[in-house]
Amino acid sequence: MTYCVGIRLNAGLVFLSDSRTNAGLDAISTFRKMIVYEQPGERFMVLMSAGNLSISQSVREILQVEKLANGDEEPITIWNAKSMFEATRVLGSAVRRVYDQDGPSLKAAGIDFNCSMIFGGQIGNEAMRLFLVYSAGNFIEATRETCFFQIGESKYGKPILDRVLTPGTPLDEAAKCALVSMDSTLKSNLSVGLPLDLMVYERDSLQSNRIAVIDDHNPYFRMIHNTWGQRLREVFEGIDDPHWGGGDAVHPLLTPSHRYEPMRKIQGPDEKIV
Question: Could you give the CA distance from residue 212 to residue 17 in angstroms, rounded to a whole number?
Fold first, then answer.
């Protein structure tokens, strides 16, 4: 299992991934899930992967040399693609190539062809784009209404992303939000683990040096972990407890519903709910 999140904002892109893979409680390993493809001033692309590690590693290897037929013109690769859409088509082709090579053997061994990827960046003067690529090589693109993608163990870290992120969120605030999302996931799922890779890309820069590896000794991430837990408890304690008695409660709990009846109790063998 893993957890990766990619965020597309007006100001740039944020990518965060963990590095844990496991095949049981006593078989835990560390492998990076993020890779950066960069030609400064020309193109900047980031790929993050989740799912079967052997599939993901094969796709990453093939992606660097994968070519798409382009009629009488030069074949399309990630290095000459004129748009992120074209580059993502190359990625989809690489996924399908690995499926053609390994899919039948995996199926015979009872293993699903399981991989998902987040691929984003900027090429030339085109706007930044962010894609979610599925096991079949097909993909969808992030929009202003859905400005982030998650892969892997996504459910624990999604609530904070839903509540905080908008296209206008500043880059550093989005990076902080991603780290809180990751901390929530680490807290609730042992199959996601440190170290983390964090990459922040500023719009139109076509390169980035804002990349950090974060382990359990990182001062900022330790502060995030301690502060977020403490502030959550403070907010929780500041919320009124439910009031079950009569009287004039500010936020009464026992109020009649305009649509539904209260739950009925069964008090004998002959009673029916309906």
Answer: 11
State the pLDDT at residue 249: 84
Backbone angles phi, psi at 38, to 5 degrees: -140, 130
Exposed e or buried b per residue across 228-246, where buried means at least 16 C-beta atoms within 10 angstroms of its C-beta: beeeeeeeeeeeeeeeeee
Amino acid identity, position 131: F
DSSP state of 68: B
Q: Please list, in sequence order, all residues whose beta carbon lies within 8 angstroms of the beta carbon of residue 193, skipping any fewer than 6 positions away.
A: 18, 19, 20, 28, 30, 186
Cα–Cα distance, 34 to 193 (Å, whole number):
14
Please give the DSSP secondary-structure letter assigned to residue 75.
Answer: P
d(CA 54, CA 125): 35
Asked if pLDDT for residue 21 goes beyond 90, the answer is no
**Distance between alpha carbon 71 and the CA centroid of its chain, in Å?**
35
pTM here? Answer: 0.93
Q: What one-character DSSP code corresponds to residue 202?
A: E
CA 160 – CA 5 distance, rounded (Å)? 12
213 has which bridge partners?
197
| Residue 183: Cβ within 10 Å count | 22
The conformation of residue 242, written as its DSSP 8-state character, comes to P
Two structure tokens written together for 56:
């993901």
Q: What angle do the packed helices 84-108 and 53-63 form, to 10 degrees? A: 140
Q: How long is the chain?
A: 274
Decide if pLDDT at 214 tops 90.
Answer: yes
pLDDT band at 204 (very low <50, low <70, confident <90, very high): very high
